[in-house]
Amino acid sequence: MSALTELLALENADAFAARHIGPDAAQIAAMLGVVGAASLDDLIAQTVPESIRSNAGLKLPTALSEAAVLRQLRTLAQRNVMKKSLIGLGYHGTITPPVIQRNVLENPGWYTAYTPYQAEISQGRLEAILNFQTMIAELTGLEIANASLLDEATAAAEAVSMAHALHKAGSKVIAVAADVHPQTRAVIATRAWPLGWDLVDFHPGDIEAIAGAKPFAVVLNYPGSTGELRDLSAEIAAAKTAGALAIVCADLLALTILTPPGEMGADVVVGSAQRFGVPMGFGGPHAGYFATKDSFKRSMPGRLVGVSVDAAGRPAMRLALQTREQHIRREKATSNICTAQVLLAVMAGFYAAWHGPEGLKAIAKRVNLQARLLADAARQGGLTLRHDMFFDTLAIEAGAKSGALLQAGLEAGFNFRRIDATGIGIALDETVTRAELETLAGLLGGKLEAAPESIPAALRRGSAFCEAAVFNTHRSEHSMLRYLKRLEDKDVALNRSMIPLGSCTMKLNAAVEMAAITWPEFAEIHPFAPANQTEGFKVLIDELAALLAEVTGFAGVSLQPNSGAQGEYAGLLAIRAFHEARGEGHRNICLIPASAHGTNPASAAMAGYKVVVVACDKLGNVDVPDLEKKIAEHGPNLAALMITYPSTHGVFETSIRDICRAVHEAGGQVYMDGANMNAQVGLTSPANIGADVCHLNLHKTFCIPHGGGGPGVGPIGVAAHLLPHLPNHPLRADAGPATGYGPVAAGPFGSALILPIPYAYIRLMGPEGITRATKAAILNANYIAARLEGAYPILYRGENGRVAHECIVDCRGFGATSGVQVEDIAKRLADYGFHAPTMSWPVAGTLMIEPTESEDKAELDRFCDAMLCIADEIASIEDGAWPREDNPLKNAPHTAAEVMAETWTHPYSREQAAFALPYIAAQKYWPPVKRVDNVYGDRNLVCSCVPLEAYADAAE
Ligand SMILES: *Cc1c(COP(=O)(O)O)cnc(C)c1O
């Protein structure tokens, strides 16, 4: 070996792929033995039908080392220009408290958690979200707030949809105030298009226009987009008189010192929690918020955390009104929201806990005082203000000087907003220093002197908010640090054990992939900063889009959708636009297999389509004769088929190509749900299968952490004929084609800040590594199926008896013999330290297990041992050793207090309860609560932390 060859080999010795993929060569060999396959390639050949394999290999750049990828990202970061952006438009500088940045945003205990469907192992994040909901409801002056939405603009669109669902009189008109943020208006316009709703703009304050429009929804901004502060009471009253819902998009910081819209009668208040400690990040992710009246709670979009009780009668939290999670209602849903922005909502709630109501008010007053001082300086400089009442944003009438003022701002390091030919907007925020304020005053031709009032007396907030103890306790960093740790320790996240969630692909979120998201050159960029300041982002986005195009086989990719469901919606709109452009706008039928994820029919309904369900056969595949029948029935009206591949049952259907061909022959388009992309990467692709468009879940397949229920990114890939019909954005020309249908998200590039994560992943893995990951994912799933099949029937398999990247174990047989239901098994897994697999989806009474490639054999064995031990426990019940109603499964999970209590009345031992397998003692996870009662909590709905604290006080 030459010295240079040797050097190369040594340089590549620590390849990232081997760190990402759990099993090493020896483990793979052992697992193949259990599975009964001669080699990994043999197993793959038995699993993935030859007819759909793409054997060309991915044309991705060769793998980089961890150090090299960080260098690459640094180079990109340095191409972003750091200016202080005072642009406003719903995005503001904010200071992330370091205690929250380090212990939450950069802490896998928080960011690798799953959506809190398994309440008993999610009490920490449920409490954090409850804080968020409490804060939002109180700040907006409304009764109930949800656990977050995607961003302000989509939250406004969700509110409009809710208003339509509640409206009885048949109006199709949405009245939008002219001072609503332009991106919010544009997202509402996109939502309106397929449903035939009309947008009518009205001048702020014009109540006659509201009455004349006879709208079902009225949308207002508070303060207005250019900063104007006015009393909204008259407009809200006019909306109600007209029979519409009054929707107010409000600035959260302003609400700490302004009369909240709820007190003015607003029905819904939405907005962004970005400026509560979450960096701008070139547009996202941030928590959108949604608050409304109690009477509308059953129509609300998104998830809701509520307080209930556990089996011991103690308070415990869980997701409330599960049926209200809209997409479960399928095509009858008014929203498709699934993944939202939990991690960011959690951060915003902690920001409020850290500062408390007094601290928040101090920040707001300071920002307002800065704006007033600057307003006075502008007047000294001979400039006029377009409005004298404002919170933090000035609209300066600069006349002929506006160009020069913008330029002077840039040279001094500031981005201002160009409102129009002569207007300049300046929005202050908590990051602006005294020195910067002086510079700004100088630019406007004045000095910091006087500060005339800018908030009318009637709009000064009189009501209290955030009075609960959690917002008034953690003033020292130690207190906060320990509070965060206390909550974190209640939860099971990936830093504790594998999370075997079918369909949700909980793979490794490597530290190196996460590194760049807190670099200021990415984190502190405003989404509407000038394009010449954001080249680093643009190159990253273009390169990532190209990498994903290669992986999917498609001609182009839009990164704008900020969740998988939003990708479905964006992709279906591309199909709708395509049909309309060809004069086939009458096509309105969307075929969806019965096994589809609930977001599919919900998205189709939002895209204006009529959903026709296609049956599935006994093997879980699309029933091809039924599909052919429905195609024949709807032929000329067929718009699209939505299909998940491999199927939601975890099987590669061999007929997929024929299915796609049949749809195309009838003039329809094929939408592929890419949630199962982890089984395809490098082996086949959506384009190869015959799809026209698909979304990817970058928070499943491409390593963005799940965040406890968000953030996500749901880009869509499209074939060439759909390229002109991708989303675009009114404030950023290069965000999509000029021929596009408008935006589906507030940010031009969606959740841009987290795009370095999938970018790093793909560059680290390289074409061979990423393909090997797919193969390892398939091996891991087949290994689990092989280990469990003696105890649990495996429900679906492909033609050669193999499963794809996940397997469904059937638990329906235990009910008759032992009384054990699938939920008992799920809850019992918590006693073994595991998060349950996906429960009762896509088939009731089953568990869907997806191990991913990142789990090594040792962890898979720990999980399988737990499942087999539970099967033995079920056998003991069947044998009569334990009664059906008193056994380790029915009583699961077991808390420490219970196992350690003086009295123990159960027929099994305490050790069996808590330490059923030897490995458990080495790192015991103690569930903090017993099984949570869902019914009680829905009958007695409580969605704020105030009553919870009252209980704790009473217990003391
Ligand atoms: C996760 C998932 C979705 C929805 O994705 P979100 O990012 O949660 O909106 C859609 N379809 C399937 C099959 C999924 O697993």
UniProtKB/TrEMBL annotation:
<dbReference type="GO" id="GO:0030170">
    <property type="term" value="F:pyridoxal phosphate binding"/>
</dbReference>
<keyword id="KW-0560">Oxidoreductase</keyword>
<dbReference type="Pfam" id="PF02347">
    <property type="entry name" value="GDC-P"/>
</dbReference>
<comment type="subunit">
    <text>The glycine cleavage system is composed of four proteins: P, T, L and H.</text>
</comment>
<dbReference type="InterPro" id="IPR015422">
    <property type="entry name" value="PyrdxlP-dep_Trfase_small"/>
</dbReference>
<protein>
    <recommendedName>
        <fullName>Glycine dehydrogenase (decarboxylating)</fullName>
        <ecNumber>1.4.4.2</ecNumber>
    </recommendedName>
</protein>
<dbReference type="GO" id="GO:0016594">
    <property type="term" value="F:glycine binding"/>
</dbReference>
<comment type="similarity">
    <text>Belongs to the GcvP family.</text>
</comment>
<dbReference type="InterPro" id="IPR015421">
    <property type="entry name" value="PyrdxlP-dep_Trfase_major"/>
</dbReference>
<feature type="domain" description="Glycine cleavage system P-protein N-terminal">
    <location>
        <begin position="19"/>
        <end position="441"/>
    </location>
</feature>
<dbReference type="GO" id="GO:0005829">
    <property type="term" value="C:cytosol"/>
</dbReference>
<dbReference type="InterPro" id="IPR020581">
    <property type="entry name" value="GDC_P"/>
</dbReference>
<feature type="modified residue" description="N6-(pyridoxal phosphate)lysine">
    <location>
        <position position="700"/>
    </location>
</feature>
<dbReference type="InterPro" id="IPR003437">
    <property type="entry name" value="GcvP"/>
</dbReference>
<keyword id="KW-0663">Pyridoxal phosphate</keyword>
<dbReference type="InterPro" id="IPR049315">
    <property type="entry name" value="GDC-P_N"/>
</dbReference>
<comment type="function">
    <text>The glycine cleavage system catalyzes the degradation of glycine. The P protein binds the alpha-amino group of glycine through its pyridoxal phosphate cofactor; CO(2) is released and the remaining methylamine moiety is then transferred to the lipoamide cofactor of the H protein.</text>
</comment>
<dbReference type="InterPro" id="IPR049316">
    <property type="entry name" value="GDC-P_C"/>
</dbReference>
<feature type="domain" description="Glycine cleavage system P-protein N-terminal">
    <location>
        <begin position="468"/>
        <end position="727"/>
    </location>
</feature>
<dbReference type="Pfam" id="PF21478">
    <property type="entry name" value="GcvP2_C"/>
</dbReference>
<dbReference type="InterPro" id="IPR015424">
    <property type="entry name" value="PyrdxlP-dep_Trfase"/>
</dbReference>
<feature type="domain" description="Glycine dehydrogenase C-terminal">
    <location>
        <begin position="773"/>
        <end position="894"/>
    </location>
</feature>
<dbReference type="GO" id="GO:0005960">
    <property type="term" value="C:glycine cleavage complex"/>
</dbReference>
<dbReference type="GO" id="GO:0004375">
    <property type="term" value="F:glycine dehydrogenase (decarboxylating) activity"/>
</dbReference>
<dbReference type="GO" id="GO:0019464">
    <property type="term" value="P:glycine decarboxylation via glycine cleavage system"/>
</dbReference>
